[in-house]
Amino acid sequence: MNTSKKKVANTEANRETAPVLGKRALNRALLERQLLLGRVHLPALAAIEHLVGLQAQAPNPPYYGLWTRLEGFRQEELSRLLEERKVVRIAMMRSTIHLVSARDCLELRPLVQSVHDRGFGGAYGKSLDGLDAQALAAAGRALVEAKPMTFSELGKQLNEEWHDRDPDALAAAIRTLVPLVQVPPRGLWGQSGQALHTSVELWLGSSLTSEPKIALMIQRYLSAFGPASVKDMQAWSGLTSLREVIEKLRPDLICFRDEQGSELFDLQDAPRPDPDIAAPARFLGEFDNILLSHADRSRIIDDTYRNRVFTKNGIIRSVILIDGFVGGLWNLKRGSGIATLTIEPFRRLSSQEQDEIAFEGANLLKFAAVDDQTHEIQFIT
Prior knowledge:
alpha+beta; 5-stranded mixed β-sheet
């Protein structure tokens, strides 16, 4: 048997004999790594780096994400990190907006360039056929570095030179060709503002790394989301063809199978708690990473509930974890000094579960609506 065939045979044998991890085992491993089995004492910056960023299509969800994971987290800690340029809001994995540390921005953004290229090509590629990409990128960079701009403003400015091209496509091209960050006040708690963009290089005063390490990126993913399959890694990052990377890492990883027989990879020293360990009720904001980082999401949400969480217009709603799994929705409304937290469970709750959720909900109100005189919690069915 030649060497390549022998490697394939050994891989198949290992897959067949690898221990099986059930849904609860995968759930508890994910919760532990996502800092959701118990709040931890960590600075917000360290937590953001551990989680490889936080999903941030809307300004407030990262604050909820840190509150539900960190002991004593306050909004001003994250706002200060944004103002001090220690964290940034930028399109990263899956070409979606993430809140990441400045260091991760410089290290990881080059690794997902192909994801941005593919997304742009699918949406706008034909409309910019024949255009000089280098000239467009230089013009766009000059504009956003002279003054942070909305995409609408950027597209209109570029359209003055490329008047026969779609302004939206021109702006999207700059988003693809030039790494752009959203500048404060966007993303600051309690402040409003349009998404204004400038270049990473200007904002951080540094260039993107010239030698990005994809193997390190995958290891960090496993640290925050594993055990996971190659398909899971690709779903999280938006990258394709990661099998080759995993095969190079295989000697340093431990392998499992899920109940469907898919091969799962993990760091050897990563935590894998007892599947029966208790999981507290937790409130997660819109677009929380835990819902978007696996091809097989059954470790966190039952397929029965997916359409209630993932809406047709692309919103991923705020959810409640009950016994570690998505078990309901929540919504907070504020006005006239009254903050009302509405809780919509997906099933009948025990009295103990309802009490636990109400207690955690009261803490959420204290965090998010401290200025309101009246706090109300409503359970709806």
